[in-house]
């Protein structure tokens, strides 16, 4: 994955979030404060405007730039969470213009750990981690087992999609949904859903020749 | 005097907490960082930075937050901010802010105010 693909992926995330804005907000209306789609869309729109200024930068600088922009524009919990994720991933990719499958896995691992640190959260609390943790594990297992990045990431996306389904079956213990306790059951987590979108776009961009 | 910053998703709530705190300690340096730039609900990294700058002195700054992104965004501001003696306190927003304002106006140190505010976590209304 080179800088061109990274930039294409960021643009694709912005497009996907915009397309799913109302759906994400609807999910968040059910168990949260109803702003997830609106907030993320505002954040990624401003990221999109910044993209041309990232064009000749290395991948680390691009990801850090995206993270910084999200922190200052999203306005909800997903700002510091995704912001930290992109910044931490950026640290791992510092100075790189091309990512190997191992680099990609290391970046995702750093992103996931960043979210855990920022949100003081773990898997199983009905958050974005329920999509991202299984996705990272599947990706890493695939790469360790000799798969290429596309196939390993496809496993990761499948695992994330299952993770999103899993969030319907558990009670939220972190974030706004935790105020609802058992009434959060049966609803899919908006953060896990947007995390799935971000992984899907990475796969789509990689599959484009 | 120790500066105080109120971080909230709502501009009105942050300003309201400042208003209540000023009733008992008009001279306390206290700033609101509520809502987004356009006044809508959310927490703004820039507003928090600006509020800390506004009330910052060598005596330090105490920050109180409502929940979720207010806490996480403040954490990120503190990580990026290269200033000593800026501290987040986990306590009831209104009671904590009033206490902080009174103590700050009374010339207490950051450490002394923090300890009193921590106590406010277990103080019952009735």
Can you walk me through this structure?
The complex is a heterodimer of chains A (209) and B (126). Chain A has 209 residues and is mostly helical. Chain A has a single domain (3-207), classed as Serine Threonine Protein Phosphatase 5, Tetratricopeptide repeat (Alpha Horseshoe), CATH 1.25.40. Helix content of chain A is 71%, strand content 0%. Chain A has nine helices and no strands. Chain A has helices spanning 3-19, 21-31, 36-54, 59-73, 78-92, 101-119, 129-144, 149-167, 190-207. In chain A, helix 1 packs antiparallel against helix 3 (36-54), helix 2 packs across helix 3 (36-54) and helix 2 runs antiparallel to helix 9. Chain A is globular, with a radius of gyration of 16 Å. The termini of chain A are close together. The mean pLDDT of chain A is 95. By secondary structure, chain B is of the alpha/beta class. Chain B has one domain (3-119): Phosphotransferase system, mannose-type IIA component (Rossmann fold). Chain B is built from five helices and four strands. Chain B has helices at residues 11-24, 45-55, 69-80, 93-105, 110-119, and strands at residues 3-8, 30-34, 61-65, 86-89. In chain B, strands 2-1-3-4 form a four-stranded parallel beta sheet, with helices on both faces. In chain B, strand 1, helix 1 (11-24) and strand 2 form a beta-alpha-beta unit. In chain B, helix 1 crosses helix 4 (93-105). The termini of chain B are far apart. The model of chain B has no long low-confidence stretch (mean pLDDT 95).
